[in-house]
Amino acid sequence: MQQHATIAELVGKLDLDTKAGLLAGQDIWTLPAVPEIGLRSVVMSDGPVGVRGVRWTPEDPSVVLPSPTALAATWDPELARRAGRLLAQEARRKGVHVLLAPTVNLHRTPLGGRHFECYSEDPLLTGLIGAGYVRGVQEGGVATTVKHFVANDSETERYTVDVRAEERTLRELYLRPFEIIVREARPWGVMAAYNGVNGSTMTEHARLQNEVLRAEWGFDGVIVSDWTAARDTVRAALGGMDLAMPGPHTVYGPALAQAVREGAVPEQVVDTMVARVLLLAARVGALDGVPSGFTAPEELDGNEVAREVAARSAVLVRNDNALLPLRAEDLRTVAVIGAAADEARILGGGSATVFPGEVVSPLAGLRAALPGAEVRYCVGADPRTTLPPARDGFELTLVARDGAGAELASYAVPEAGLTWIGEVPEAVDAERVRAVEFTGTFTPEVGGSHEFGFRGLGEAVLTVNGRVLFDGVSLPEGDDPFTAAMDLSERRFRTDLVAGETVRVSLLLHPLTLAEGGAGPFVFVVTALGHAAPGPGPDAQIEQAVAVARESDVAVVVVSTTEEVESEGFDRTDLALPGRQDELVRRVAAANPRTVVVVNAGSPVEMPWLEQTGAVLLSWFPGQAAGTALAEVLLGAREPGGRLPTTWPARLADAPVVRVKPEQGVLHYEEGVFIGYRAWQRAGTAPAHWFGHGLGYTEWTYESARFDPASRTLEVELRNSGPRAGREVVQVYCAPGEPDPNRPARWLVGFAQVHAEPGESVLARVTVPGDATRVWDSGVGGWRQDTGPHLLEVGRSAGDLRLSVGTVNGL
Ligand code: BGC
């Protein structure tokens, strides 16, 4: 109350121009300060797997947690909360007040490009993991912006697509995670999506933003636009959007002040928006004189949290003859195969990118955990379509130059990759910089034909050993400015070099974005110099891997997607592993039945070789502790604790919802409430792996279940009937007593974790929420409690139900 009263007074002290200015970014990540009222500049940064900060550069590293799909695979809201606390700690370290996360759109289809960045196909699991995350971040005194409100579930035509969905579909599925999070965790921010819903773009959606989110659910935070999503000053202001990002050239600021002067927007509306922004500033401690009420919680070890989430999220989907866990003492020779074994894909691409400090690859993790074994590595098949950045054997300096070629700044870099988004490094003069150059030496270990490649838009000159390999201009393709700039195709060249003979190397780029006026407030420079030493061709690489696998006690093959097929900005076109990785797995598994496949992908992939392998473990995008966690799980120090947060199809052709391409700008969610397991069950087809599935290293017997209607608690007795201590995720689904074609066959209503020693019986308690049987009634435009008989079904996944309890008169 006190806080609100003070804020109202502060708003009263500001003139219209200052108020309108406060509602627009002053640059890509920050809001203007207003020292007269003690308001400091509020700083925002992406999430969700780390906090990048305002500098998009490897020189400012961050803790990198596993992908949101992994966090959801833990089915553990308390662990999500711990992850959130760690991120708040990271945010404070980097001077960030507002984390642009979590992403709680749904896995409507496995083709969604940002599937890895969302939690699940199920709204309850998404909502509970999201609520845990939001609590954790905000307990650390940092705001969250739950995104992207709403129906931002695919990427094709993402800035403009109009999603058409029935109100029931929105209420029961897509709005549901936002509702759970708003009601349970009270987030301080929500991000309005790029897309439209039923004819209105989301930044202007008065009904969903003002009526549903605010009035109905009681959201009292700020609504910030997705980056460049705001289109129209008056419609956005009246539609409920508070902050237009990024700035300064956007629909708020001077344009908003003018709209007020013209009478198109009441000044009171602007005052309310400013009050919300000041409340946000107060909550994050950026408003002097208004206490945030925050006291710093205990410090967390970032690497430990990353490792815990990675181990707990790994989902074991096949374990033939109990091949896993491996016994370290039985292993003399281990084959580790795959490009991603050495260069793990630790995180998904796009705005979620953060730069890790230290990464432990699967190869390094296994080597460290197996000091007594000979660990032999082969690439096997490399799915990447760009060369890895020049690193081994290179001594490189990055030089920033002005228009006349004079040096402005230079510093040594470990590898030749540069991404400046939002800001240039401190040492570089943003006004004067016009060119960047990687320059230095390279001493090849092997002689022969070396391949060099570069990415970067603008005039470029690539010189190796005195030979000019390229001198020309590289221009963007496509019309999505973000993807055009990020998804840079590579130009490649070959040159012969002699082993041990040091040569000079230089890539000089005059980036298009620096051509006029220097970096300015919107710096966007991405470039890389790639390199590959002469080596065996693709056929020989597979043969080599097969030969090494055949001679080894066990083969671990790490397969992965690439940034070209799974990332922000576009949807996937298929679920196949890129390159020749399927062939590699088949060949290796045929050579050694003790083959473990680790799938390093943020979202489902087809695994046509599944039955031919010994074991398959899904590691998602596992974050910076990838290799440490993987070794712990493979060698049995930890159980693979994950359960699928989304159904995995055997083939894309079987998946029930695959349309992501709008027609004339419109994407119909014609499947209604039937996505994920709800859709598979209606179709009567079996996926490769059901929602909720995951094996672990022990067995569980579900013995009995009892429902107490007074406390709404379901008690489930289960016994660890296997050989090892373990953790089980007990899942409770609700099903209508009589099948109803308009309703899913069953839906998740709760879950609980238990831990038990071998032979031990334990009790899992799940409180079934009061709204478990509610249905959106389109006739009356409101919720209706379905009071007919229902079943509570208990099991290990949506496709493996062990017990059921009947109830009468609803729940
Ligand atoms: C993404 C948001 C992100 C923003 C800022 C947008 O393109 O959709 O999720 O927070 O960029 O990087």
Write the layout of secondary structure elements.
Elements lengths: L1 H11 L3 H7 L21 E3 L21 H6 L3 H17 L4 E3 L22 H17 L3 E2 L1 E4 L12 E3 L2 H8 L1 H10 L3 E4 L3 E2 L2 E2 L4 H11 L5 E4 L7 H7 L14 H8 L5 H17 L18 H12 L1 E5 L13 E5 L1 H4 L19 H8 L4 E5 L15 E8 L5 E7 L3 E5 L13 E8 L5 E8 L2 E7 L2 E8 L6 H6 L4 E7 L5 E9 L12 E9 L5 H13 L3 E7 L20 H11 L3 E6 L14 E4 L7 H9 L31 E3 L7 H8 L16 E9 L4 E8 L5 E11 L10 E10 L4 E7 L6 E4 L4 E4 L4 E8 L2 E8 L4
Parallel strand pairs: 1-2, 2-3, 4-6, 5-7, 5-26, 6-9, 11-12, 11-23, 23-24, 24-25
Antiparallel strand pairs: 7-8, 10-25, 13-14, 13-16, 15-22, 16-21, 17-20, 17-22, 18-19, 18-21, 27-28, 28-31, 29-30, 29-34, 32-33, 34-35
Beta-D-glucopyranose binds next to loops.
Structure description:
This protein is α/β, with parallel strands linked by helices. It has four domains: 42-243, Glycoside hydrolase, family 3, N-terminal domain (TIM Barrel), CATH 3.20.20.300; 310-385 and 537-661, Rossmann fold, CATH 3.40.50; 394-532, Galactose-binding domain-like (Jelly Rolls, Sandwich); 698-807, Immunoglobulin-like, CATH 2.60.40.10. Helix content is 23%, strand content 26%. The protein is built from 19 helices and 35 strands. The strands form nine sheets. It has a six-stranded mixed beta sheet with strand order 10-25-24-23-11-12, sandwiched between helices. A six-stranded antiparallel beta sheet has the order 14-13-16-21-18-19, with no helix packed on it. A hairpin with a 4-residue loop joins strand 32 and strand 33. Helix 2 (16-22) crosses helix 10 (254-261). The longest helix has 17 residues, at 77-93. It is globular and about 80 Å long. The two termini are 38 Å apart. The model has no long low-confidence stretch (mean pLDDT 94). Residues 46, 100, 147, 226-227, 351, 482 line the site of beta-D-glucopyranose. Beta-D-glucopyranose (BGC) is lined by residues 46, 100, 147, 226-227, 351, 482.
